[in-house]
Amino acid sequence: MTKQPRVSIGIPVYNGENYLAEALDSLLRQSFGDFELLISDNASTDRTQEICRAYAARDARIRYVRQDRNIGAGPNHNRVLELSQAPYFKWAAHDDLYAPAYLAECVAALDRDPAVVLAHADGPLIDAQGKPLTFDIFRQCYFDRNGKRYAREPVDIAQSDLPSERFDDVLHRIVWCTAMYGLIRRDATNRVTLMRSYYGSDKVFLAEMALLGKFYHAKKPLFMKRCHSAMSAQMTAEERLAFMDTAAPKAFPYLELFKGYTRAALRTGTLDIFERMQCVASVARKTFRARYWRNGQEA
What we know:
Elements: E1 7-13, H1 20-28, E2 35-41, H2 48-58, E3 62-66, H3 73-83, E4 88-91, E5 97-98, H4 102-112, E6 116-122, E7 125-126, E8 134-136, E9 141-143, E10 149-151, H5 163-172, E11 183-185, H6 201-212, E12 214-221, E13 223-226, H7 237-244, H8 253-267, H9 273-289, H10 292-295
Parallel strand pairs: 1-2, 1-4, 2-3, 6-12, 7-13
Antiparallel strand pairs: 4-11, 5-13, 6-11, 8-9, 9-10
Helix pairs in contact: 5-6, 5-9, 6-8, 8-9
């Protein structure tokens, strides 16, 4: 009988030939090796299938499945979670990189403190070639070679003892949602809404997770988010709709987003009435300040 691994890593991918091998190499080099690596190929039309089969043939921890059609990024994220069996789970993007100590750091954080539901790590933004972007310490942001500015993700998100403060952090302070790719307690995912068919549903997921427990964020350069022209943050609103779910309704995606926030504020976790009202107030502030209704920016 095969021993159950402690960690499941899920990679949902579509046409990832440019960066997939690098991402797989960085995960397979982890000092913590007790994991399974699940890849769900969303009917890619490039060399993704060839790359995945080659890696699966030489490492028994890798399990590769291929969708018959492109089901969209949202359902494909859910698919790798459904396939997982370990008590700790993490999504991994096909274009990001990890230092060898990443998993060990995150596993230790979850083992150490049962109040923590998600563990992640700091690290630089990198460009398409894997080189770190220039960081401006005074403005606390990154710049690429063309002078484009990228905000730095805060590293002290959702660490309060109060669920309402953790919820507010996710709604108002998170930039990239990189915590989505942290290590998560698998049983907590049964108590929250998974990825839905609208852009920004990852932040709703994180908001609900924050109501269940704290986030741990190692202040060590162990995670490298890649910024490139094909990333979802660079897409138009229309492209994002197709990216998230090819069968999703096309109208009012940001209405769905704020419905998700409201549902989380009212239903997730075991909060007293005061904490619930604080969460509702946080959603109200988010709605009032929103720019997304005008220009399609991410929530």
